[in-house]
Amino acid sequence: MAEVTRICDRVIFLDKGKIVAEDTPLGLTKLIQVAQLRLTFNDKKDIISQYMKKEKLNFRFDGEHVVYITMEEKILPKIIFDLSKLGIWMTDIEVKKPTLEHVFLQIARGEKYVFE
After folding, report:
1. Which residue from 5, 45, 60, 107 has the least number of CB within 10 angstroms?
2. Are residues 63 and 114 in the same domain?
3. Are 69 and 37 in contact (CB under 8 A)?
4. How do the pLDDT tens digits run along the chain, 116 residues long?
5. How many domains, in total, are found in the chain?
């Protein structure tokens, strides 16, 4: 699917000979509107935890300086901005979004995408 994403302008997903989805690769990946933010920070883990709970976000810490946050993609900029305003020094930001393969599996098999 990575090659399809790279070389195709339009993609059609078929299920039992019927078109179940048709769009650009980007348009199809936007069907799953969830993203995961991996944030590396210097300190203030307690402030991050309080913010996540207040905003009712799905998060988990990986050690003392990394947090994974799963959210609707559209609120990602707000989270980064809010944490910055709270004085969190972010040393690395990585955003993970569903791929075309994840979209296909969700459409064709009804498998809900979950970040690992």
Report:
1. 60
2. no
3. yes
4. 778 888 889 998 888 888 888 999 888 888 888 999 999 999 899 999 999 999 999 999 999 999 999 999 999 999 999 999 999 999 999 999 988 888 888 887 777 777 76
5. 2
Q: Residues 59, 75: one domain? A: yes
- Domain residues for 62? 34-97
Spell out the SS3 assignment of the chain. Answer: CHHHHHHCCCEEEEECCEEEEEECHHHHHCCCCEEEEEEEECCCHHHHHHHHHHCCCEEEECCCCEEEEEEEHHHHHHHHHHHHHCCCCEEEEEEECCCHHHHHHHHHHCCCCCCC
CA atoms within 13 Å, Cβ hemisphere of 24 = 5
